[in-house]
Amino acid sequence: MPTTPWYERAAELRIDGRAFIEGERIAARAGTYFDCRSPVDGRTLAQVARCDGLDVDAAVASARAAFDDRRWAGKAPAERKKILVRLADLMLDHRDELALLETLDMGKPIRYSRSVDVPLAQNCIRWYGEAIDKLYDQVAPTAENSLALITREPVGVVAAIIPWNYPMLMAAWKIGPTLAAGNSLVLKPSEKAPLTALRLAELALEAGLPPGVFNVVPGFGDEAGRALGLHMDVDCIAFTGSTRTGKEIVQMAGQSNLKRAWTELGGKSANIVCADCPDLDAAVAAAIGSIYFNQGESCNAPSRLFVETSIKDAFLDKALGMISDFAPGDPLDEATVMGAIVDPIQMKTVLGYIEAGKEEGARLLAGGRAARAESGGLYIEPTLFDGVNASMRIAREEIFGPVLSVLSFTDLDDAVRKANATPYGLAAGIWTADINKAIRTSRALRAGTVHVNQYDNDDITVPFGGYKQSGNGRDKSLHAFDKYTELKTTWIGVS
Ligand code: NAD
Q1: Active-site residue 299, yes or no?
Q2: How much is the pTM?
Q3: Could you give the CA distance from residue 167 to residue 218 in angstroms, rounded to a whole number?
């Protein structure tokens, strides 16, 4: 029986799985629930409201009323700032509780949910709150007889649909800019990890956000998610998730009211290490650390590693020496760095890719098996394939698990061509001591973020999003406001 102090705290949690509409906890109108199970040990955490179209209608009506009477949009930006900063403070006050919910719900190690997810999520909300009373609109350089104002207005009712891999952070990336800009929000968390989103809505109310401005409808994609995608009174849909679902979201926008549809989708990011890499140890640590962090369930994980042939053996020696540090452990043990896979479906998908890699002739150098079965949870060993070629499924498709595919190269141009030969374009990396090579390669890589001689920098000040089928929007930074605001021109005649 596991004994870390976090188990005692987990036993004390009282989890409310009901939806959050018009500032209140409420059961799904049909009275339906689904089981929210923990991948840590298989325990049932809560019964969560299984919202459908009727619940979505109620949440959208609540958000619409809140927007139309300007209870939030009409507040001075400085007032909105105060409330969002208060929400960020409350998130820090509830840091342990939020971290524990996140870990139990989706399996990531408590050390990271506490030191990475909560701090980044609260910082995101704080940052947008802090930004909103420092942004100015524009006056156009028109002739004397007129004044033309170019102003930003909130787009209205925003629906956000988010995935399960960073549930709180993905929620924060939507909550921060949408609410700071004065919109009302209906958030649908993933059915695989709905708990922190529900708690954030309660904290937002406590921080002073008026009821109706932020509603949460937990449920399944083809029920609550689809109802939001097709809703005629949603002005904008902000989606983060798989490319397959993203395509449906864009179609739903077209089939309904042509709501603005923003997509932040999957990836198959390439990390290229040249023989003149300035620090091989750092390159190995970044390659390994970035693919196994969050159990490999990161959209920008560098899952394709291109290593120049002359340094490949040295690289792999170092990598294999480091890989046991990532052995999966109990997510509620603070020493654990790799936790559980979110659910049995994802577990099956990842193990299926490992089998495909073996069948297609890649060399399995480490891992490859399920682990910690005795825990009752879902775990996979950190897995490394060498001898991968670009046509194998493990080199082409997003696995979203702790699986690294190593490809070697002798010609950098060819490596860049292969790196770009994917429908995705979320992130990429290049390691070289040659500044010209670094700049030429970073320009040639078709990805929303390119890392040079590191892979883990991240900050709220920079935009995050993809080229090609990795999506069309950008989360984070001031650029995110473009998604959640309309640009209005007002002509004023001057006599
Ligand atoms: P998913 O597409 O299965 O689900 C995402 C969300 O969409 C969930 O809330 C789900 O319930 C909902 N959904 C599913 N089908 C729907 C439908 N038909 N209509 C409306 N909503 C629907 O993705 P996932 O498995 O939750 O997340 C993993 C994916 O997310 C990976 O591809 C990953 O790369 C991507 N991701 C991207 C980013 C980014 O910023 N680009 C960040 C995190 C994750």
Answers
A1: yes
A2: 0.98
A3: 12
Nearest CA to 37 out of 377, 400, 381, 380 is that of 377
For residue 448, name the pLDDT band (cuts at 50, 70, 90). very high
Which H or E element spans position 386? strand 383-386
Active-site entry in 264, 297, 308, 381:
264
Cβ(264) – ligand 1 distance below 6 Å? yes
The CA 295 to ligand 1 mean position distance, Å, reads 17
Q: Is 132 in the pocket of ligand 1 (CB under 6 A)?
A: no
2 pLDDT more than 90 = no
241-277 pLDDT, tens digit per residue, is: 999 999 999 999 999 999 999 999 999 999 999 999 9
Q: Which residues contact 353 (CB under 8 A, 6 or more apart)?
A: 393, 394, 397, 399, 401, 403
Q: Is the CB of 359 under 6 A from ligand 1?
A: no
Residue 434 C-beta-side C-alpha neighbours within 13 Å: 9
Integer CA distances (angstroms), 178 to 125, 181, 473, in order: 10, 5, 14
The question of whether 264 is a catalytic residue gets the answer yes
Q: How far apart are the C-alpha atoms of 159 and 235, rounded to whole Å?
A: 8
For residue 344, the SS3 value is helix
* Ligand 1 binding pocket mutation candidate from 50, 222, 242 (most atoms within 8 A of CB): 242
298 ligand 1 Cβ < 6 A: no
Q: Quickly state the pLDDT bin for 456 (edges 50, 70, 90).
A: confident
CA distance 486 to 133: 17
From 299, 308, 381, 398, active-site residue? 299
Phi and psi angles of residue 193, each rounded to the nearest 5 degrees, phi first: -160, 70
